[in-house]
Amino acid sequence: MTRARRHVRGLAARGAAGGLLVLATGCGVAPPESRVAAVASMAPGSWSASRPARAGIDRNWIRRFGDPLLNKVVAAALANNLDLRVAAERVRRAEAVARLAGASRLPQGQGRFTATQSKQNFTGFPIPIGSTTSGTYGASLDINWELDVWGRVRAGQRAALADLQASGLDFQAVLTSLAAQVAKAWFALGEANDQIRLAVSVIEVREKIAGSVRERFMEALIEEGGLASQLRLAESDLATSRATLARWGAERERVLRQIELLVGRYPSGVPFTIHGLADPPPRPPAGLPSELLQRRPDILAAERRFAAAGSRREAARLARYPSFTLTGSRGTSTDSLREVLSSKFGVWSLAGGVVQPIFTGGRLKEEERLAASEERIALGQLQQTVLRSFGEVEQALVADVYYDKRIAAVKEAVELAREAAEAAVEDFADGAVDALTLLSAQGSAVQSAIDLVELRRLRLENRVDLHLALGGDFNLRGK
């Protein structure tokens, strides 16, 4: 694991687990307790599209694709991707906000130095009598402390800590999403490589077919029946194959640059690999739906924001209560600048105060209503996130089953179309069939092969979506 990857992983762990709580608060204030119980009833007992299973997370899913070069590209993206750096800065910003929230609970002190010069004129009638000039100098240390008797400041602090945890979980989601984007782009590159090889082979076959049709046309073996049109169809199929080769060549160049952007480098189109698509690893067990509530980072982040909104509502309620403050000052006051630090001229003061809001124009009441509304919004967003997450798992599970069925059927179609094309070539050479039959058989074989490559890529992408939906983290090393 690279140093950069360890660093970004550390950021996610610190934000998600609240590892900076003591540092951020200066006191033992803990983040709000989990409120996932508010959505626990939304989880069914089992998945509709899968049998019940106990395990639902695979931290090695990227390595299970069996491509060491893919692992290296993902590692490079984690070390250099610019979007990931922005997400890391958001975690650092959340840390700073949490520290600021904790600072307001502690005594606030400031040093002060004052110097005052004044002049007073004494006037008489009809002429001035004179004037006098005086100076006052002082140095002091002033302390102000708001006693958090009711816990209003602590409630705001807990909200900031929950936001910090949510930011760390958001970073974890970005981290996993980046790995998935790289994997999907890698599979698109593999598809382009396979389609290019297929197009090249198709061009070779269609060149031979066009040559055979042209020879028959030149020899005028068929006196009636549109042989010229059949030649044009053969040449059209050949031109279409060449266009297909150019299209997949352009797609390959596009995907190469997309991967380079994901790994944070200039998109120059440097080739990564010429390998095609590999077979997918075994389907991961889906686990229980209730486990998803404790595993997916987007659900956990939404729950932390719901918890933060609850703490802010509590802080808004406690703002109606009186606040208690202590102020103190210790310093000197003298009329000589040279004696400003002398203890002979020391002064001090200590005061306490209580402030009870009485008339606020309805501000405190509306702030409490606003905070309650924000909490309900956060709950709705949490519920929507949970429902969407369940839907993503169900859709990926169903799609995975049907991709297997579709690929099996298309593989059979490919084999049958290949046999039909080979038979059509022999029959055409024997004069048993015309060129239209040969071209049709060849077209079916080509299209079936193209569809099979595309389906294999879609199945791999869906497998990535399934791992993401299940909340699967990833590990590029180890077993």
Summarize the structure.
Strands 1-2-3-4 form a 4-stranded antiparallel beta sheet, with no helix packed on it.
List the helices and strands and how they pair.
Blueprint: H1 3-17, H2 21-25, H3 68-80, H4 82-103, E1 108-122, E2 130-147, H5 152-219, H6 227-262, H7 289-292, H8 297-318, E3 323-334, E4 346-355, H9 363-430, H10 435-469
Task: Please supply descriptive tags for the structure shown above.
four-stranded antiparallel β-sheet, 4 strands, disordered N terminus, 10 helices, single chain, elongated, Outer membrane efflux proteins (OEP), 479 residues, alpha+beta
Helix content: 55-70%
Low-confidence stretches: 1-5, 11-26
CATH fold name: Outer membrane efflux proteins (OEP)
Approximately how much beta-strand content do the residues carry?
5-15%
Q: CATH superfamily, please?
A: Outer membrane efflux proteins (OEP)
The outline comes out as elongated
- The counted number of beta strands is 4
Order of helices and strands: HHHHEEHHHHEEHH
Protein model, in words:
- The chain is an alpha+beta fold and 479 residues long.
- The chain has one domain: Up-down Bundle (Outer membrane efflux proteins (OEP)), CATH 1.20.1600.10.
- It is 60% helix and 11% strand.
- It has a four-stranded antiparallel β-sheet, with no helix packed on it.
- Helix 4 packs antiparallel against helix 5 (152-219), helix 5 runs antiparallel to helix 6 (227-262) and helix 5 (152-219) runs antiparallel to helix 8.
- Mean pLDDT is 83; it is low at 1-5 and 11-26.
